[in-house]
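Feature request, filed as a ticket because there's no other form

It would be nice if the structure record came with a short human-readable summary line next to the tokens. Right now we just get the raw output. Example of a typical job, pasted below so the devs can see what we mean:
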Amino acid sequence: MRWAQRLKRVFQVDVETCPKCGGTVKVLACIEDPPVIDRILTHLANKNLPGLWPESRAPPKQRATLLQ
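Raw output as currently delivered:
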């Protein structure tokens, strides 16, 4: 099973479909080396990029259905 299929199955995250147009997304690279990932994230954290690190928040509360 490919990693994209696992993400979709376990977390209901479809990384192969564009959220804007619904088209197919092609994965160009998969970076798995921890030191490389750390370098990339450290580099991005040093940039002033709005929206890159959204504030954490709790998941939305579901409305309870009242049985009458």
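Something like this underneath would help us a lot:
The chain has a mean pLDDT of 81.
The radius of gyration is 18 Å.
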